Amino acid sequence: xxxxxxxxxxxxxxxxxxxxxxxxxxxxxxxxxxxxxxxxxxxxxxxxxxxxxxxxxxxxxxxxxxxxxxxxxxxxxxxxxxxxxxxxxxxxxxxxxxxxxxxxxxxxxxxxxxxxxxxxxxxxxxxxxxxxxxxxxxxxxxxxxxxxxxxxxxxxxxxxxxxxxxxxxxxxxxxxxxxxxxxxxxxxxxxxxxxxxxxxxxxxxxxxxxxxxxxxxxxxxxxxx
Length: 225
Description:
Order of helices and strands: HHHHHHHHHHH
Largest sheet: none
CATH class of the largest domain: Mainly Alpha
CATH topology of the largest domain: Serine Threonine Protein Phosphatase 5, Tetratricopeptide repeat
CATH superfamily of the largest domain: Tetratricopeptide repeat domain
Number of domains: 2
Number of strands: 0
Helix content: over 70%
């Protein structure tokens, strides 16, 4: 299934930190998907808007965006189940896990991430992205040993299967895993945390397309290191 042009433009706008533009484009994409009765595209557009709202939540520090993101993630899963789009169950649960993390509800996030891995459909590289998020939820829940194990395994899965995806996605997921490890390990193992921070910085500085990651890295360094 191929996304329509408006949806692809929305994705590009979001990755360049132009979130309001992304929302307008996604809204237009919704109507095209609905007219075509393309429910797979509609679910993916809901997930795209969910992710856009997540970024706006961090930028504005306004929980309203987290609530809207949660509703889009719930709608994506409900539509996927209604139309038996099993290939989208995993990504819908993953978005629910991401948004539940915004509310510091780590126990439910762990369950959503487990569901996302159980229903996973995609490359092994992206599965590593799902897994390190699962590891973060476990770590923040207090299950640090298992959480770190899952984080490290997720990072290896990303690195070992980099050929499955384009360089942009690979760099997004790899740098994200390193940043999560740096953030979480800072109080428990500062030396290892700094190594992961340096790895993330090297990746981000090598790819000018990582606009959001660059902003996130600067915030992490300013607030935590």
